[in-house]
Amino acid sequence: MNTAAWRAADGRRRAPRVRTWALSLLTLVLFLFTAACGNGARGSGNTGDAPPAAGDGNGGGAAAGDKPTLVFGDFSWDSVQVHNRIAGFIIEHGYGYPVDYKFGDTIPILQGLQDGSVHITMEMWPDNIREAWQKALDSGKVLDLGQNYPESPQGWYVPAYVIKGDPERGIEPMAPDLRSVQDLERYWQLFEDPSEPGKGRFYNCPTGWVCSDINAQKLKAYGLDDHFTAFNPGSEAGLNTSITTAYRQGKPWVGYYWEPTWITGKYELIRLEEPAYSEECWNSGKACAYPPSQVLVAANSRLQDMAPDVVEFLKKYETTLDQTAAALAYMEEQGGDPAGAAHWFLKTYHDWEQWVPAEVHQRVKQALEEVN
Q: Which ranges carry the ABC-type glycine betaine transport system substrate-binding domain (predicted)?
C-alpha cells in the first residue's frame, strides 16, 4: 500500500487532478480485490488439505514445491542427533523433502509428535516414559516404526584390560577371574577408593539420575555396600572423564555405564554379568540386571499421508550398537558435529542402501560425493 501511495504521488506531479483521483480509486479497488483473494487463499490452506508452517503445532511446514518440511525431534544426547541427521540427509537428498530439527526434552518432543509440530524422532526410549508413551500410542497420533538398534544395555562395566590385560601396552590382567558383580567382593582392593581407604570405589551415576538410587540399592542387594563406596562423579562429563583417565593410564575402574556412547565406541569395556532381569526381582531389591531398553523410531501418524515414501524408509531403518558407538566416537574425535558424523556413517556403512529404492540411493550417493 505504501508503494502504491508513492507511485500515486509521483503521478500527481504529471497528471490532471481528475485523472489522478480516478487512478487512485482504481488502484484502491484493485488492491482491495487482491487482498480479498489473498485472504481467501490463506484461509483455505489451514483446512487440513496441506500442513501449516513448521513449528506452529499443526503438522509441519510448507516447503518449496509441493513437499512439506519434515521436522525431527532432537534430544540432548548425541546418538539421537546423529541418527536424526542420518535419516534427515537421506530424506532431504534422496526423497526431496526439506528437513528441520527441533530441540527439546523427552516429554515436550513426545507432545510435539502428537500435535504434529514434530514429525519424526529416531530415538524414543519408551521404557523411561512408559505411561506417557502408551498414552501417545493409544491416541492414534503417534506411530511406532520399529527399533533403531537392538535393545540398549546398561549395567556395571570394567575396562577390558582389567580382565584380559593389554599386551600392546604391557598391561597384565588384574582380575582374570572377574566375571560377575558377585566377584567384586574379592577384588575390592583393586579398586580402592583413595578418599576412603578400606573400600573400593564404584563410579555411580551423577546424583539426580534415576540410576544413582538404583545402583545404591544394587550395591546393598549384592552385599557390596560394606566393600564399595558409591562415588558421585558430578556429571556425565565427570563420569566420562573418570573412564578416559583410567583407560589412558591403564588403571582399574569399575562403575555404571550404558551403550551406545562414544566411550563404548572408542574404548573396550566389559559388562559384568548379573542375574537375569525379572519384574519380581527388580521390584524386590534389584539384585538382577537392568531391564533392557528399547530404542524406537517414532513419528506423527499424519506422516503416512504427508510422506508415505518416507514412512516406508523409516520402517526399514535399522542399525547396530557398534555402528552407533563408532559414529559417536568419530564425532568426539572430530569435535562433536552430528552432521559430520552422519556423513561419515553413510560413507562407512552401506546398510542404508538396502533401505531405499535405487533412484533414491543414487541421489543420496551423489549428494554424499559433494560433501567434504
A: 69-347
Fold exhibited by the domain 70-152+293-370: D-Maltodextrin-Binding Protein; domain 2 (3.40.190)
Predicted pLDDT at 61: 40
pLDDT at 202 (0 to 100)? 98
Within the chain, strands assigned E span 70-74, 99-103, 120-124, 142-147, 154-159, 200-203, 228-231, 255-258, 269-271, 296-300
Q: What distance in Å separates the CA atoms of residue 327 and residue 321, rounded to the nearest whole number?
A: 10
DSSP tag of 141: S
Q: Are 205 and 211 in contact (CB under 8 A)?
A: yes
Rounded to whole angstroms, how far apart are CA atoms 66 and 98? 11
Contact (Cβ atoms closer than 8 angstroms) between residue 210 and residue 125: no
pLDDT for position 65: 62
The whole-angstrom separation of Cα 310 and Cα 303 is 8
C-alpha cell at 61: 511446514
Contacts of residue 55, Cβ cutoff 8 Å, sequence gap at least 6 = 61, 71, 100, 102, 117
Helix (H), strand (E) at residue 142: strand 142-147
Intervals of the chain under pLDDT 50? 1-64
Residue 171: helix, strand or coil by DSSP? strand
User: In a 3-state reduction of DSSP, which class is residue 155?
Assistant: strand
Residue 349 CA, chain-centre distance (Å), reads 19
Record: fold of 154-284: D-Maltodextrin-Binding Protein; domain 2 (3.40.190)
Paired strand residues for 120: 72, 299
Pairing, β 200-203 against β 228-231: parallel
92 in Cβ contact with 310 (< 8 Å) = no
> Does residue 101 contact residue 92 with C-beta atoms inside 8 Å?
no
Q: pLDDT at position 42, please? A: 28
- Supply 178's cell numbers: 572377574
First to last CA, the chain: 47
**Domain map of the chain by residue range?**
70-152+293-370, 154-284
Q: Give exposure, 247-261, as e/b (b: 16+ Cβ within 10 Å).
A: beebebbbbbbbbbb
